[in-house]
Amino acid sequence: MYRYKCLNPIAEVGLERFSEDYSETDNIQEADVVLVRSAKMHDMELPDGLQAVARAGAGVNNIPLEKCAEKGIVVFNTPGANANGVKELVFAGMLLAARDIVGGANWVQSQSGNPDVAAATEKEKKRFAGSELQDKKLGIIGLGAIGVQVANAATHLGMEVYGYDPYISVNAAWNLSRHINHSNDVNEIYEKCDYITIHVPLLDSTKKMINREAIAKMKNNVVILNFARDLLVDEEAVIEAIEEGKVHRYVSDFPNPVTVGKKGVILTPHLGASTVESEDNCAVMAVKEIMNFMENGNISNSVNYPNCDLGICNAESRLAIYHRNVKKMISRFADILSDTNIQNMSNTSKGDYAYTLFDLDSKVAPETVEQLRNVEGVVKVRVVK
Question: How many angstroms separate the CA atoms of 151 and 137, rounded?
């Protein structure tokens, strides 16, 4: 029996995918698995028995990834599950920036009780005139699950689309419309585009990548959209650029003291993945990842351990070994397992960590497991079956 703990409300359509071998617990110290959305885990005491954390969403900055890796806790996320919801909000943001819909709607609200509102509307509407998206240049920084969807949809609105991603995956490249202009230099997007939207993970290398230097290269009256993470943008520099007339609008899904109430800034309250469909998709994907990991030892969409898959376990026994990514580890494991037949194995690595699955034709003895645990560089050994 496996126990799971939900740190945030998780869509029932996902939780009901758990089989009878899973039960929910209110005590994280009893949990084999944690499901989380936005709850901050950095200061939590993680139990020794915790095997996995599944983030029902893409961003994992609320989870202590290295701390989990050191304890042999695999952290999953659900890339692409909320992509359509975020994509649609990006287009809403572009339309809000282009047409001053917010200003116009607020003015109409102020006319409550005015019997001549229709006539007043005809006089005032020119104050809220805007521009169309068709024929405008859209630059997309980051062509992952969301960026690709934004790029493809924008072509159907008649926009000229430029995409930049030096690390684009094969799958994303296959899904990208042939009408997208591929930029090999992000500066091309800064210099050419009327709208710029960013869809990259928050890393040390991407923090505040939209900064004063980048803004200086942009066209006058550019619109910057941020539905990824607020720290990707130097927002103080953006506010200054709005005041100077360089930036027309900054649209963000992440309100904070720097941006709230500022002229030229349009903010939404972190609504990117807040759709019924996105929450359902994330929950279902997270539960599937957990069940495959707990029952078969397979890893997919982990952010701190490598993907590894030996399929459904039909062998007599399956061992999962979490270890440092150093030389000669496999030969050491094989020596210890020399008294049994290894039917199949898979070894993958990611950064400082590696993960190895062994399918064996007999049950592994407790003393053999202990020998494996004592190998220098081994983080954890789990008998999956």
Answer: 11
Largest CA distance in the chain: 91
Q: Residue 171 — pLDDT band, cuts 50, 70, 90? A: confident
Q: How far apart are CA 246 and CA 213, in angstroms?
A: 13
Spatial separation of the C-alpha atoms in residues 322 and 377, rounded to whole Å: 9
pLDDT at 44 over 90: yes
Report, in angstroms and rounded to the nearest whole number, the Rg of the chain calculated over CA atoms.
Answer: 25
> Which sign, positive or negative, has the C-alpha torsion 163, 156, 144, 309?
negative
Residue type, 174: W
pLDDT above 90 covers a percentage of the chain that reads: 93
d(C-alpha 268, C-alpha 94), whole Å: 13
- Burial environment of residue 13 by CB neighbours within 10 A (0 to 12, 13 to 18, 19 or more): middle
Taking CA atoms, 324 is separated from 101, 299, 306, 353, in Å, by 54, 17, 12, 5
Whether the CA torsion 180, 184, 186, 191 is positive or negative: it is: negative
Query: In what helix (H) or strand (E) does residue 347 lie, and over which residues does it extend?
Result: strand 342-350
3-state helix, strand, coil in the chain (%, to 5): 35, 20, 45
252 φ/ψ angles, rounded to the nearest 5 degrees: -135, 150
